[in-house]
Amino acid sequence: MNPYAIAIHGGAGTILQSSMTPEKEAAYKKGLSDAIAAGEAVLKKGGRSLSAVEEAIRSLEDNPLFNAGRGSVFTNKGKNEMDASIMNGRDLTAGAVAGVRNIKNPISLARAVMEKSEHVFLSGDGAMQFAEKLKLEREPDDYFFVAERFEQLKKAKETDSITLDHNDGSKGKIGTVGCVAIDVHGNLAAGTSTGGMTNKKFGRVGDTPMIGSGTYANNATCAISCTGHGEFFIRAVVAHDVSCLMEYKGLSLSEACKIVVQDKLVKLGGEGGLIALDTKGNIELVFNSEGMYRASKRQDESLYLGIYK
C-alpha cells in the first residue's frame, strides 16, 4: 500500500502579516486545517484521492473566508459566478464547470460532469440545467452574500477596475481554492474552485476550470492545482507544463515547479502559485507572490500550515 498525502491552497497574492489580525490569521488556519481533515478522513479509510480532493474543496467552499462557493466575490452585475474543475490521474478523466450560480459546491458539480455526462466542460445555463437534473444542492443569493466581498465590488466599481480578491486596495484574502492528493492505491487527483475576480465582466473565465491550465493530474507524473492571475496561467498552461517537464525532460517535481512558477510565469508578468504532489508523495507549495494560504499532510506526519512567504 502507498502512503497517502494531501495538500491544499486557499489562494495566493499580496498576503502580508502586517495587514492581518491575530484573530483573522487564526480563522484562516482553522479553515485550512478543517479542509485537510476533511480530505484526510477519506484517505485514512483507504478512499479514493478523487473523493479526498472533493471533500477538502467542499470544506473550503463552505467557508466564507475563501473566494469559492459561499465566499465567492461579486461580478460587475452584483452576482456570484463560480468555476471549478477536477481531474483523476488514474485515467485522465476530468470534469469542469464555468459561470455557475447558486450551486453550493461547484466542485461536486464538476465531478458530476466527469462521472455522469459524456462531456468534460459545461458552462453557464447548460451547466445549471445539468445540476438541476441531478438535483445538486443549491442555495439562494443571500447564502453567498458576504459584506466584505460587496465592499470590494463597490471599491472596484469606483475605479472601474477588475481586481483579484487578494490584491485589491483592502489587502483582502484569496482568489481560488484547490487540493491535490494521492491515495493508498497510488492514484493522484487534483481539483480547483473559485469565485473569480471582483467586478469581472462579459462572462470572464480564468484558469481554474481549464484542464491543463489551473488543474491537472496524471499518475505518470503529478497532480497540480493553481492559484493567481488566471490570464497568465492560461497562457502558460501552467499545470500541464509542470507535468510535461517531468515526463519529457525527466525533471523532479521540485525542479519543474520552480521553473514554471519562478521563471516562466515571472517573465510573463504572472503572479501566483501552485500546490503539487508526485507519485512518491513529494509535496511542493510554490509561489512567486507575497504569500499563499497553504497546508499539507503526509500519512503519519504532522500538519503543515503556511500563509506568508
Task: Please describe the topology of this protein.
Layout: E1 5-13, H1 22-44, H2 49-61, E2 82-88, E3 94-100, H3 106-116, E4 121-123, H4 124-133, H5 147-158, E5 177-182, E6 188-194, E7 215-217, E8 222-228, H6 230-236, H7 238-249, H8 253-268, E9 272-278, E10 283-287, E11 291-298, E12 304-308
Parallel strand pairs: 3-4
Antiparallel strand pairs: 1-5, 1-11, 2-3, 2-6, 5-6, 7-8, 8-9, 9-10, 11-12
What does this structure look like?
The structure is a single chain. The chain is an alpha+beta fold. It has a single domain, classed as (Glycosyl)asparaginase (Glutamine Phosphoribosylpyrophosphate, subunit 1, domain 1), CATH 3.60.20.30. Helix content is 34%, strand content 24%. The protein contains eight helices and twelve strands. The chain has an eight-stranded mixed sheet. The protein has a four-stranded antiparallel sheet with strand order 7-8-9-10, covered by helices on one side. Helix 2 runs antiparallel to helix 3. 57% of the residues are buried.
Main β-sheet: number of strands, strand sense, barrel status? 8 strands, mixed
State the low-pLDDT regions, or none: 168-174
What proportion of the residues form beta strands (DSSP E)? 15-25%
Distance separating the two termini? 35 Å
What is the count of DSSP helices, taking H or I runs of 4+ residues?
Answer: 8
Q: Under the CATH scheme, which architecture would be assigned?
A: 4-Layer Sandwich
- Order of strands in the sheet with the most strands? 4-3-2-6-5-1-11-12
Average pLDDT, all residues: 94
SSE series = EHHEEHEHHEEEEHHHEEEE
Rg is 17 Å
Give the number of domains: 1
CATH class: Alpha Beta
